[in-house]
Structures are given as C-alpha cells and as structure tokens.
C-alpha cells in the first residue's frame, strides 16, 4: 500500500498569505496525485487532479505541482473561505489512499 | 444537475448488516466507475471500494474484504455497499464518489463528484 504523508498537519495563516502543503508518497506515483478541500460538515471537493491540473470552477489561487514522490498544493493569497482541511489522494496503485489531511485555519 | 445522494445509514449493533445506496442523477451513470469513501468521526478520509462502470470489476480495501461488497445497478443509476459483520471501527460517514474519467475499470483517476454522505454508527 502506498502511504501518503502530508505536512504540516495544521497551519494557522493570515488572510492574503501564501500557503504551501506538501504530500510525499512512499513510492513513485508519477502524476497520479489529486487534491481535495473539505470544509466542516461538508463533503470533499476536488481542487487539483493529476498533480497540476485545476478542476473546473476552482479559483486560480489554487495550484498544484510535483511528480514521482513529492507534491505541493499552493494557495496564493489565502481567503477566509479557504479555511478547511486539505487531502491528497493517489490513484497510481490499489488500494487508493489518502493523506492524513492538513487543516488550514485563518488567524 | 449532477448529483449523488446516499441513503441507508443508521445505528446498528456489532455483527449485524446494513446496505447503503447511492442514487445518481444528471449524468450517464453507466459510463463511470464509482467509489465508496468513509470518514470516521474527527478523522481523515479512507477509501473503501470501487466498482467499474459496467460492474465487471470490483476492489475492496483490506479492512473490509470479506465483509463489505460493492455493486451497482445501471438500470437504476444506483451503487450499493452491502456491509456485513459490522464492527465498531466501521462507524463513519460513508460517501459515494464518481471517478472523473469515463470507462475506467478500477477508477484510476480523481473523484470529481461526491455525495453528501450517510452516517453509519455501529454500537451496542
């Protein structure tokens, strides 16, 4: 099973600041890495697919990069509505797995 | 609009069974692989199972193998999760989700549409 490790687990950030979340895979997964946002009491929403492709309707301040084992989700100029938990997910090798999540709080 | 609606959750005693349903609308259901993902209270996401677009391929995570079975009925636009021999550790919100690309056998892509979830509580 491929283990995805996100860092940090928690981040407290002021509005307009840049946020960087990393996801490291226990083995190479090419670009089969996706990012989701989950707000409290809501279902997850797809932000970025295949490491760097923005999903339809997602604000341009969200971007993804990386390949192989190291990936990054970047939120440029954080907005209050971006307070949420972010998860990475790999679809390279069954069973599909998720990272443990990174909670982003607005200071 | 494109929508997934789960149902069938509830409170059940350990060892008993429950069947979850996920009704799809607004898209050609029979061309998409479908997944179940769960989230224990206060915890992260855990992928549970996938069924191919035509129902011919299924895969379950190890922790539910032999107890849970995913299936689908394309004539009813519905995917199911039959859960037997339930344990306390199966307590979670269960989400169904659509694989983003069509005609995938095991869902080798992102999950682009999610339902609102249905809560399953296993407790005596």
The helix/strand class of chain B is mainly beta
Global morphology of chain A: globular
Mean pLDDT of chain A: 97
End-to-end span of chain B in angstroms?
Answer: 39 Å
Gap between N and C termini of chain A = 36 Å
Sheet of most strands of chain B: 7 strands, mixed
| Quaternary state of the chains | heterodimer
- Tally the helices of chain A: what do you get? 0
Element order, helices and strands of chain B?
EEEEEEEEEEE
Apparent shape of chain B: globular
Count of helix runs of chain B: 0
Helix content of chain A: under 10%
Main beta-sheet annotation of chain A? 7 strands, mixed
- The number of distinct β-strands of chain A equals 11
Low-confidence regions of chain A? none
Content of β-strand of chain B: over 45%
The average pLDDT score of chain B comes to 96
Largest interface: A-B, 24 and 23 residues
Low-confidence stretches of chain B: none
Write up this protein.
The complex is a heterodimer of chains A (107) and B (124). Chain A is an all-beta fold and 107 residues long. Helix content of chain A is 0%, strand content 50%. In chain A, the strands form 2 sheets. In chain A, strands 2, 4, 5, 6, 9, 10 and 11 form a 7-stranded mixed beta sheet that branches. Chain A has a 4-stranded antiparallel beta sheet with strand order 1-3-8-7, with no helix packed on it. By secondary structure, chain B is mainly β. In chain B, 0% of the residues lie in helices and 53% in strands. Chain B is built from no helices and 11 strands. In chain B, the strands form 2 sheets. In chain B, strands 2, 4, 5, 6, 9, 10 and 11 form a 7-stranded mixed beta sheet that branches. In chain B, strands 1-3-8-7 form a 4-stranded antiparallel beta sheet, with no helix packed on it. In chain B, strand 5 and strand 6 form a beta hairpin. The model of chain B has no long low-confidence stretch (mean pLDDT 96). The chains are: A mainly beta (107), B mainly beta (124). The interface between A and B is medium-sized, with 24 and 23 residues.
